What does this fold into?
Amino acid sequence: MIIWIDGTYGIGKTQVALKVYEKLRDNKIELLNSDQYYREIIKEIAIFGGGTMPQNNKIFLKRFRKIIEEKISDSSKIIIIDMAITEMECKETLFNYINDKYNNIMHFILNATFDNIQNRIKLDFNRDREDALYYLDRNVNFLENNFKNAIWIDTNNKTAAEVADIIIKHIFREKKKDISF
It folds into this structure.
């Protein structure tokens, strides 16, 4: 099973993914942080051109897809992927491919008010805040227009742990439906 935690820059995907991972640690679980893999792959093959972010870099998307497929090969494992799908290239090359091939993704999109997301980005010193703010409206619209069937979670006034608890409740609700776990 794949737990895909999605949302705009600065929404809290990484923190929520870490909390879900910590809370489910006793299970056979692995966390794949797309930003971490992107940094590693860029260093390894010096990707310049073809997209400047994980969501639009074709080389990264294909390499990350192979990594995901290797991890999925153990069907008893839960894979948590923390990655924004805010570009059509990412949706088609990575998300749709994995979803069509394995059909076992629980897709969560973290959401908040526009002002709240802006404030979170302004306080996040681990990213290019200027780019994150510039693309925010576009990213929000992409998610809203492309993933109506995802599980949307309002993160306003919630801690990462509270959002993780909501995700875990959804996971166990699906587990009761006999989804391979």
In short: The longest strand covers residues 105-111.
